[in-house]
Design brief:
By secondary structure, the chain is mainly α. It has a domain at 51-169 and 214-305. The chain has helices at residues 2-38, 58-75, 82-105, 144-147, 150-165, 168-192, 198-208, 220-236, 243-255, 270-287; strands at 41-44, 51-54, 118-122, 129-132, 136-140, 294-296, 303-305.
Length: 324
């Protein structure tokens, strides 16, 4: 009997010891999870001043985006329209110069090395344009009948460049990495407390996903921030930011969703977008120096000059493209 009691007592001790060890492992994993979520480099978005925590470096993101851009350009067909191609490169070049000068003048000169500006016009009827990290930009021919002139094209390219300058891709990647870490750690915790392997399967699935810059859909807050910065970048480059209102009105007319709710969309509704642009306009106009800008139609070889003193938005109606 004494032996049985002793054995029972030993089993009891082992049971409590194992339980105690699991508790220690659980709390250690929670601690590691908290450390992972909190790690990263803190960056400040130009102009808006918003703070962001990034887990990937500018160099890493540029390397990946350059590879993806080169792969895309191998299969893309460049536009054969020399005039429009030159216009895209001209507008893009002015914006790139303005952004580079701004970064150098505002304590962000070291960031300039991570921009390898490229502006290409490709044969595609979609009303779209996109920018990969590092300023690698692609414009589809289908966008030009909508922008109609250089100033409106500058609004679009300013928006796309803003995604790169605000490191939205890196921020998205960092968010996904934190989520993956959370799933992995959650899986380990689940194993430690005997929950099962479902979380492990989810974690493995998350790790298998690839980050595609070209098809990236930013959040509504990122899209709005890109609208804000893009408006100012266009103004810095000497383009009248007031054309943004008429441009987005044309986009709303084409899409027919000017009153669409924001709730189920990764983009702001057209009505919200136009309202925000109007609110940012006084700030943008401070950067606008009234420089004469050549306005080239995508449909004609004719060009005209925008008056230095003209501040009246264009009233022509246009289309709706969703930036990526």
């Amino acid at each position: 009997m004494a032996f049985v009691e002793a054995l029972s007592s030993t089993d009891d001790v082992e049971f409590h010891l194992i339980k105690h060890m699991k508790n220690i492992k659980f709390f250690l994993l929670v601690l590691v999870a908290a450390m992972l979520v909190g790690c990263g480099t803190t960056k400040t978005v130009p102009i808006t001043g918003r703070q962001q925590s990034l887990m990937v470096s500018d160099g890493e993101v540029l390397s990946l985006s350059t590879q993806q851009y080169q792969e895309f350009m191998k299969t893309a067909k460049l536009s054969t329209n020399k005039q429009n191609t030159e216009m895209v490169k001209r507008v893009g070049g002015k914006l790139a110069t303005a952004v580079t000068n701004y970064l150098k003048s505002n304590g962000m000169a070291e960031d300039v090395q991570y921009y390898k500006w490229q502006f290409n016009l490709v044969q595609n009827n979609q009303v779209n344009a996109w920018c990969m990290p590092g300023g690698l930009i692609c414009v589809y021919e289908g966008l030009l009948p909508v922008t109609q002139n250089e100033a409106s094209l500058a609004i679009v390219l300013g928006h796309e460049i803003a995604h790169a300058v605000a490191r939205h891709s890196a921020e998205q990647m960092s968010t996904q990495m934190k989520q993956q870490y959370g799933l992995q750690i959650g899986s380990a915790i689940a194993g430690a407390v005997g929950v099962g392997t479902t979380a492990q399967s989810i974690g493995q699935w998350a790790l298998s996903q690839q980050f595609n810059f070209k098809n990236l859909k930013y959040s509504r807050s990122h899209e709005s921030e890109a609208d804000h910065l893009g408006l100012i970048f266009a103004a810095m480059a000497g383009y009248d930011p007031q054309v943004a209102v008429s441009f987005w009105q044309r986009m709303a007319a084409q899409s027919g969703n000017s009153q669409q709710s924001d709730i189920y969309s990764d983009h702001p509704s057209d009505a919200t977008r136009i309202k925000q642009i109007q609110e940012w306009m006084p700030e943008a106009l401070k950067y606008y120096k009234g420089t004469s800008v050549t306005s080239s139609s995508s449909k004609s070889s004719k060009s005209s000059k925008t008056s230095k003193t003209s501040k009246t938005p264009q009233t022509t109606k246009t289309i709706h493209f969703k930036t990526k």
